[in-house]
Amino acid sequence: MVEIVDGLKAKLVEIDTQIELLRRQIGDLDDQRAAFVKVIRVYEPEFTSGNAAPRRPRSAPRRTASSRVTELLKGKNNRHVVLDILRRSDRPTSSAEIARQFATDIELGEEAERLETALASRFSATLDGLQKQGLVKHAGTVDGRRHLWEISR
Questions:
Q1: Per-residue pLDDT for 54 more than 90?
Q2: Read out DSSP for 65-81?
Q3: Average pLDDT of 13-40?
Q4: Predicted confidence band at 34 (pLDDT cuts at 50, 70, 90)?
Q5: Fold of the 65-151 domain
Q6: Are 144 and 119 spatial neighbours (Cβ–Cβ below 8 Å)?
Q7: Residue 139 phi/psi, 5° resolution?
Q8: Under 8 Å CB-to-CB from 118, ≥6 apart: which residues?
Q9: Which of the pair, 54 or 128, is modelled with greater confidence?
Q10: Residues 6 or more apart from 80 whose CB is under 8 A from it?
Q11: Phi (first) and psi of residue 62, to 5 degrees
Q12: CB distance 125 to 149 below 8 Å
């Protein structure tokens, strides 16, 4: 028990030492900053430290395919979507075909091609889960590597 407390005390001393070192570094940086501001004001009297960095216009955040897929599937049950598409299909179907059918069902239009891979990936994960539950099964492959899926009967 004494060893644990001694170890904790040693760690506390170590942390206090680091804090003091960081405080000194912050003080040094504050001094450097003040010197820079003083020199800049010689050349530009209206300068304030608030306008130190040139402003860049903000661009709208770029939406990734994955985030867009998440948005499209929000409020939907992926399992039900996949099972519904497989039920309507008259033959074994790949996850890419499921993605294309989903895009058609929700009328994605031009955006469908950009999102197909992300949709197929999401539906592939759903299919793996459905297979573990015995609801779907492999029914061969396309080009020797991509699985075809069908409802387990």
A1: no
A2: HHHHHHHHHTTS-HHHH
A3: 85
A4: confident
A5: Arc Repressor Mutant, subunit A (1.10.10)
A6: no
A7: -130, 45
A8: 65, 66, 68, 69
A9: 128
A10: none
A11: -80, 125
A12: no
User: pLDDT digits over 104-137, tens only?
Assistant: 999 888 888 888 999 999 999 999 999 999 999 9
In tens, the pLDDT along 55-69 reads 556 665 667 888 888
The rounded mean pLDDT for the chain is 86
Rounded CA separation 54/37 (Å): 15
92 DSSP 8-state letter: -
Q: How far is CA 15 from the centre of its chain?
A: 34
Q: How far apart are CA 85 and CA 80, in angstroms?
A: 9
47: exposed, middle or buried (Cβ count in 10 Å: 0-12, 13-18, 19+): middle
- Whole-angstrom CA distances from 108 to 1, 69, 73 are 66, 11, 12
* Consecutive H or E run containing 151: strand 146-151
Token couple for 52: 């130190």
pTM (predicted TM-score): 0.59
Give 111's contacts (C-beta < 8 A, 6+ positions apart). Answer: 68, 103
C-alpha angle 112-68-77 in degrees, rounded to nearest 5:
90
Per DSSP, the three-state class of 125 is helix
